[in-house]
Amino acid sequence: MDNALYVGLSRQMTLQRSLQLAASNMANVDTVGFKVEQMMVRTESLAPENLNVAPINYVLDGGVARNFGQGPLEQTGATYDLAIDGDGFFSVQTAQGVRYTRDGRFTVNAENKLVTKNGDPVLSAGGGEIVFNPTQPIPAVALDGTVSQGNVSLGKVGVVRFENLSDLQKEGSNLYSVKGDLAPAAAPDAQVRQGMMERSNVQAVLEMTNLIEITRAYERVAQMMNQTQELASRAIERLGRSN
Amino acid sequence: MRALRIAATGMAAQQLNVEVISNNIANMNTIGFKRQRAEFQDLLYENVVRMGAQSSESGTVVPTGVQIGSGVKSGSVYRITEQGSPTRTENKYDIAISGRGFFNILLPSGETAYTRAGNFSPNQTGQLVTSDGYVVQPQITIPQNATDIAISKTGQVQVTIPGQTAPQVVGQIQLSSFYNEAGLEAIGDNLFRESGASGPSVLANPGSPGLGELMQGYTEAANVDAVSEITALIVAQRAYEMNSKVVNAADQMLSTTSQLKS
Hints:
heterodimer, A: 243 residues, three-stranded antiparallel β-sheet, 2 helices, 26% helix, B: alpha+beta, 20 strands, 22% helix
């Protein structure tokens, strides 16, 4: 009898985590380069030993699926806003090592380097930094990432891709780290668009329906647990009657 | 329940967004105003099941793991220094910059401030000053008997004096450029101050490499686009609402839990 409660509890715990993910998606509906996430649950089959009964299936959180689909591009008109159209990431040199991002709202620091809003240098295709010349006209970025001021080419903004996107781990601040020493490959198919930013690919309608589903499922499980409790108390009442 | 706190960060972020948008809209008619944009970043992630963790002794690993974010934070409020459209005013003392650069203004404190608002006028001693009366640097004094003033694209100020055939040069306007214009600190009254992020100012004549040219008789309108600001406002409002729905949902789940029979 208790098993029904434990199974219900396992589902409620995964539902709470799903709600957290939905909340995180919704909170980041306006975060540039954010990729929507969803909980994947799996059943954990536990057959009691020595008893010839059907196994009890618990629910466990199996993993977080991240949808790396393209977010809509929005024109901003800012010179240092870059967006990737296609599969790929910008490389950023942080104090902790190289990190990857789809957030291309860069700026220029006091040393005239192309940096992220956190001040970390953006890496070129060769792994170096991109340094502008303040006495030259406003820089232009070509579709393949080549940065130029006037007739002078300053290098190419590095866009890299990963064979297996589930190797990426979120770090916060719109950055991804990669586990181990996995080296990324160049992404020749990705296009860099200047003056654009990639909006979050969270779809508000889907998240809202998701939210309703989660709350309703939670209520149903709670109801099931209540009924189980009631069944137990009624059984005790009936069987405990003396005559 | 953490979903409550996550939704709260989302609501706080959208509130900031609306504040920035309303400031842009309020300054739609401010000369030389540059619109701003609130930028958001995702917060730290908690690893519930760490990806790449070993799931058995034989070396199999968890392929994706369970990473749950803790919401959103405001990364920065970025100033978009796109050129505003020049507006014809016919006023001889109005100067717009077409391209990069800032006018230098001497504050009463002795500090130098920078501005794109070129709606100047002469003061009681003939000095070219801003609408607040702060002196434009380098100082330009217009003689009292001057009948006309001409400012060239490269910043040379010439006046016509009765009885003289040739115009007389009375000064040269210079512009400051910065490595990172977006890093300047706004101090109100259309003025900016140099900061550690902007880098030092580089002084040069208008029209020299990398700098814009002057346009006499024009002012630079704010680069705020009403339509896109209103759209952004609607989006922000909806996003705020959606985050409040998450608060509702979390609250509902908590109340379901508390109503469980013991």
